[in-house]
Amino acid sequence: MKPILFELGSFRLHSFGLLVALGFLAGSWIASRRGRAMGLDPQAIQDIVFPWLLVGGLIGARILYVLSYWQRDFAGQPLVEVLAIWKGGLVFYGGLIGATIAGAIGIRRKGLPLWATADCLAIGLALGHVFGRLACLLNGCCFGRACVLPWGIRFPADHATGGVWVHPSQLYEAALNLLLCGGLIVWQSRRPHGPGQLFALYLMAYSGIRSFTEYFRGDYGVQSAPTAGVFTPGQSTSVFIFAAGLAVWFLRRPRSGSTGPRVD
Prior knowledge:
Elements: E1 4-8, E2 11-14, H1 15-37, H2 42-68, H3 70-74, H4 92-110, H5 114-139, E3 153-154, E4 165-166, H6 169-190, H7 197-214, H8 233-251
Antiparallel strand pairs: 1-2, 3-4
């Protein structure tokens, strides 16, 4: 755990902010490369990531975090704390929703094919999320529940875990997102599909990953979600994300007689 990498006078370099920035850069890089392979303009794809996905994703992720943890983290605090995203406090599903809305607007403004571009960006999302979970590890958030396994990790004694050995839940999800990124690239290259199906596959696969890794999370307190005590908030949201992905998958199936991916 190292939330602050170094200090120079009044300047502090927060590990969370740095790794999130690196995640956007890595995601933009792989998305533009996949776009080139699909016959899309790689620079136009980067122009979607910056600023559309960046701004939309951060706003969505922060809004959902603030709404979810207002009483715990923000009630009675100066309102400026709502904007302090460099300290951590982002909810991925909020970022996914915000980035999807902003990205769709940006894609239309750039005149790119909506679904084919979304497929390339989905690969970038998977890679960028690897860095996001590493950011959580260094920041000490999204931590796991207690465990006695040899690969358990310990945070400092004054951490919310109390210094006990816990599951490295952040590393679990980082590793699975890396595998997802590679799997999407292979699937895009080798399997006939309709534009948008790769994006749908990402939604379904990630919701499964998230539902699995949530079982190892130990950072949830009393939640107001209707499913509290049965599912975590992340698992509850995953049900809707999976359903959305499944709907897109069937709606974007290749037309009869298609032999490969089409761009539209």
